[in-house]
Amino acid sequence: MTVIQTSGKRKEAIARVTLKDGHGDVTINGTPLEEFSTKTYRLKIKEPLLLAEDKLDDINISVKVHGGGMNGQAAAIRLGIGKALVEHAPVLEDVFGEYDRQLLVADVRRKEKRKPNRQGSARSKRQKSYR
């Protein structure tokens, strides 16, 4: 098997996923998945792994993630793993598509950039005083 590399993005978080031959290990930034963050985020990351359980015995998944917050990182990892597994086993595309489209397609929403000549956020207006 060749090495498969994919990436996933969510908000400011970017995850780079690598699939190699192995024993079914999943590591995120060098730590095992079981020790990563909180239980909620681990469950979110495990969704594509649970849907493809029979295809994971002979591969190792390594993830490098940076940027954003914990929720964005978990969603980026989930997307990257989903895309890599579909590339490894194309049969999973229908399974992931039926379960949740976000396992295959990135969420393109981003923060609105600030506008010129305005203080604060992009949609803030100058305060008016009528007195």
Account of the 3D structure:
Helix 1 (39-51) packs parallel to helix 2. This protein has 131 residues and is an alpha+beta fold. The mean pLDDT is 90. The protein has one domain (4-103): 2-Layer Sandwich (Ribosomal Protein S5, domain 2). It is built from 3 helices and 5 strands, in the order ββββαβαα. Strand 3 and strand 4 form a beta hairpin. The chain is elongated, with a radius of gyration of 19 Å. Helix content is 31%, strand content 22%. The chain has a 5-stranded mixed beta sheet with strand order 1-2-5-3-4.
Helical proportion, percent range: 25-40%
Order of helices and strands: EEEEHEHH
- Coarse morphology: elongated
Task: Please work out how many helical segments DSSP would assign.
Answer: 3
SS class: alpha+beta
In this structure, how is the largest beta sheet organized?
A: 5 strands, mixed
CATH class: Alpha Beta
Which architecture does the CATH hierarchy give at level 2?
2-Layer Sandwich
- The end-to-end span amounts to 74 Å
Domain module tally: 1
The CATH topology turns out to be: Ribosomal Protein S5, domain 2
Biggest sheet strand line-up: 1-2-5-3-4
Alpha carbon gyration radius: 19 Å
- Can you tell me the residue ranges where pLDDT is under 50 for at least 5 consecutive residues? none
Q: Provide mean pLDDT, rounded.
A: 90
What portion of residues belong to β-strands?
15-25%
How many beta strands in the DSSP annotation? 5
